[in-house]
């Protein structure tokens, strides 16, 4: 690593991103992860929602760095099934460092200060306090973070690349699964018998907080069940 510049938010030049081979078993994901952990070591964190893409990424990460730091943004509003799958992952990969990052206010404290069910009348504010700020705190002082974004998840994500300059958090966002399809994700899960959130079997392709997630069968937008009926498609973590 000596003699070369480490890619960071401040010296970002897209041409300096390594060229990863897309035509292999993991469509470049394993190579991207090996590069990311070799380059950034403890200066990179995986922010995981423990959805189906997260389950695949965790298995790949464990092959590269079995003591990697994985952070779950624990809003206090997630489905019970989400917490259940986290415990199954802990059992399967005991050396991974899985942390539950909570917001400053409990759900009850938020209710007292901002009114009941803030997610209904000001969902953006709720996401800001319970997800965005906690991730900002997590990434403070870190150069890069890993995300499970895929190009075909939704129209807003189709331009995602392996390595992206993240203006929101002033860091680099590494997305190893960008070229994976929904079917390929599931093929991997079944091939290696990975535990996953059972809500995926109930037409929940994308799973967030319980109050803001509905099932959907829209084949063109797996996030159609998130904030359904609202002028909102992202929680704010992936908006520059």
From TrEMBL:
- Places the protein is found: Cytoplasm
Q: How is the cofactor bound?
A: Binds 1 [4Fe-4S] cluster per subunit.
Any one of the GO BP annotations: cysteine biosynthetic process
Q: Which GO terms describe its cellular component?
A: cytoplasm
Q: In which pathway does it act?
A: Sulfur metabolism; hydrogen sulfide biosynthesis; sulfite from sulfate
| Binding positions ([4Fe-4S] cluster) | 126-127, 209, 212
> Which ranges carry the Phosphoadenosine phosphosulphate reductase domain?
44-215
Active site as annotated: 235
Catalysed reaction equations from the record:
[thioredoxin]-disulfide + sulfite + AMP + 2 H(+) = adenosine 5'-phosphosulfate + [thioredoxin]-dithiol
The Enzyme Commission number assigned here is 1.8.4.10
As cofactor, the record names: [4Fe-4S] cluster
Arranged from A to Z, the UniProt key words for this protein are: Cytoplasm, Iron, Iron-sulfur, Metal-binding, Oxidoreductase
* Domain of life the protein comes from: Bacteria
Q: Which family does it belong to?
A: Belongs to the PAPS reductase family. CysH subfamily.
Q: What does this protein do?
A: Catalyzes the formation of sulfite from adenosine 5'-phosphosulfate (APS) using thioredoxin as an electron donor.
What is the name of this protein? Answer: Adenosine 5'-phosphosulfate reductase
